[in-house]
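Need tokens for this chain, all 229 residues.
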Amino acid sequence: MPDIDALLFDLDGTLADTGPDMAAAINALLKDEGRTPLPYSVIRPWVSHGARALVELGFDVGEKDPAFEDLRLRFLDHYQQNLCLHTKLFNGIELVLNHCEDRGIHWGIVTNKPGYLTEPLVEQLGLTERASCVVSGDSLSNRKPHPDPLLYACRLIGRTPDRSVYIGDAARDVEAGNSAGMVTLVATFGYLGESDQPDTWGADGLVDTPADIITWLNGGVSRPNANNA
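Here are the structure tokens for all 229 residues:
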């Protein structure tokens, strides 16, 4: 493994535990529509897949349904109003950020979340001045799983993909990182569902806790993926 000098994070389900606030938003919308709120355990695995997935989960409607777009926009309105009420960094992530900063490893965020939500959320988490870059889902014409956002992030921070790590909790994160020529890690502490099989996604490693990221950066893979076993 080459020496790593950049670590890029997915936002939802990897860097920050945004699930409680996103769950509150979809349940508020369900309440608006006279429907029964969903348990958090049902909502959590869908959080990383964004507004569309949560609306489909809550209302059992697809994007072609005439009511879908109105529901999506109203969900986003609920979410924007309480963007960082219960959201916080995952336990141990602060230690990872400190480790990167102490070692001179630039770290940044690459997310599919739109900028009008990403930027205030990052600000409220106190990370705006610390992150070397923040790339949102609408920063470019392409978003993950396309590699462009990750390559753009490398250009912003002056680092090369072959010495960068991307960590996320969804298959599209691994696909984007691999296509960009980066080392890829799966945050299994994120919003994975029972049917997810991260061992099959083609990542370079799986990390079960944020502390495992430090172990990995120091040269030890916490658990090999199926292809390397």
